[in-house]
From TrEMBL:
It comes from Rhodanobacter denitrificans. InterPro entries: DNA/RNA_pol_sf, DNA_pol_Y-fam_lit_finger_sf, DNA_pol_Y-fam_little_finger, DNA_polymerase-Y, DNApol_IV, IMS_HHH_1, Rev_trsase/Diguanyl_cyclase, UmuC. The gene is dinB. Monomer. This is DNA polymerase IV. GO terms for cellular component: cytosol. Its main location: cytoplasm.
Length: 367
């Protein structure tokens, strides 16, 4: 008997764009208020309780970044101008950009208000290449929104996302199929999706600092050390990513959260949890044909550590009150000193399934 050889059939060649608006929220504010142009701007409320939603490129020179506590951002850049976020306005601009995408393809996968993947293997506009399509999209965004976007063109999603970062702001970078290996080889492994500081350190301990070194490492040993993630690392090092652009990404979680004016103890959170449960439940009700089975409680400590606790009960929550009851009970799973204080609480629903299939399973158990 000869051993069975598994032959990998390559996925059909794709042309993928990743389009990323440049410093989106801050750029909208600078566009609409000329007095902010050329100045360091943070979209955030000023104060110890706030975090930066977005920073202009002028602010980034000082090290100001999104998700940074506002008080730290102000220390880094004392002349920083704080502008409260206006998500209604940002969503309106995002819709404009989405309409521009839709002139070229229906295969659009939004990642957030300011970035999306597009599959332009074939296009409605009939432009000659993916590069020409990216240039047309960027030009339309500039003319119609008076904002700039950066784009990456590549044979797959993860490469397109890396490419869009290469010429920011207001840039275009193309990775052709024959260039993939040469492009990836010198990159630090931290540029690969899913490789954070912890994984970077683990790979460094194996003598792996670049994607080229990762590619040369034995796949079997990567799998032995990291399981399925080891196989995925080996694929990424070769530039392999067969995930298609998904126009209709199903909701993974609906949630609501609140940051307090003053830090609170765990036993003081119930009124806030119940109020947030009402908001999360309202979002859940808008998911037609799908129901959530898992309740999630999120907490952020006074020193910015995030904790999550979740529970999938035998029967899904059927009301905001049930959701709140379960979320409140999840506090018992927080093993921290009783006098610990929290600056944020969130309540969410996850584990979405098709409503009809859930009901069919429930009927089986009731029979």
């Amino acid at each position: 008997m000869h051993p069975t050889t598994v032959v990998r059939v390559p996925a059909p060649s794709r042309k993928i764009l990743h389009v990323d608006m440049d410093a989106f929220y801050a750029s909208v504010e600078q566009r609409d208020d000329p007095s902010l142009r050329g100045k360091p701007v943070a979209v955030a409320w000023r104060g110890a309780r706030s975090v930066v939603c977005a920073a202009s490129y002028e602010a980034r020179v000082f090290g100001v970044r999104s998700a940074m506590p506002a008080i730290r951002a102000e220390r880094l850049c004392p002349q920083l101008i704080f502008v409260p976020p206006d998500f209604v306005r940002y969503k309106a601009v995002s819709r404009q950009v989405r309409e521009i995408f839709a002139r070229h393809t229906e295969l659009i996968e939004p990642l957030s208000l300011d970035e999306a993947y597009l599959d332009v293997t074939t296009t409605k506009s009939g432009l000659g290449s993916a590069t020409a399509t990216a240039e047309a999209i960027r030009e339309a965004i500039r003319k119609e929104t008076r904002l700039t976007a950066s784009a990456g063109v590549a044979p797959n999603k993860f490469l397109a996302k890396i490419a869009s970062d290469f010429r920011k702001p207001d840039g275009l970078f193309v990775i052709r199929p024959q260039q993939v290996e040469a492009f990836l080889t010198p990159l630090p492994v931290g540029r690969l999706p899913g490789v954070g500081k912890v994984m970077e350190a683990k790979l460094a301990a194996l003598g792996i600092a670049t994607v080229g070194e990762l590619r040369a490492f034995a796949q079997a040993e990567l799998e032995q050390r990291f399981g399925r993630w080891g196989r995925r690392l080996h694929e990424l090092a070769q530039g392999i990513d067969e995930h298609p652009v998904q126009p209709q990404r199903p909701t993974l979680q609906v949630s609501a959260e609140d940051t307090f004016e003053h830090d609170l103890r765990l036993d003081e959170l119930e009124p806030h949890i119940r109020q947030l449960a009402e908001k999360a439940w309202a979002g859940h009700q808008r998911e037609h044909g799908r129901v959530a089975r898992t309740v999630v409680l999120k907490l952020k400590t006074a020193d910015f550590h995030t904790l999550t606790r979740s529970l999938t009960p035998p029967t899904r929550p059927m009301s905001a009150a049930e959701l709140a009851d379960i979320a409140c009970a999840l506090r018992e799973r927080v093993q921290r000193p009783a006098d610990s204080r929290y600056r944020l609480v969130g309540v969410g629903l996850a584990g979405f399934v098709d409503r009809d299939s859930y009901q069919a399973q429930a009927d089986l158990f009731d029979a």
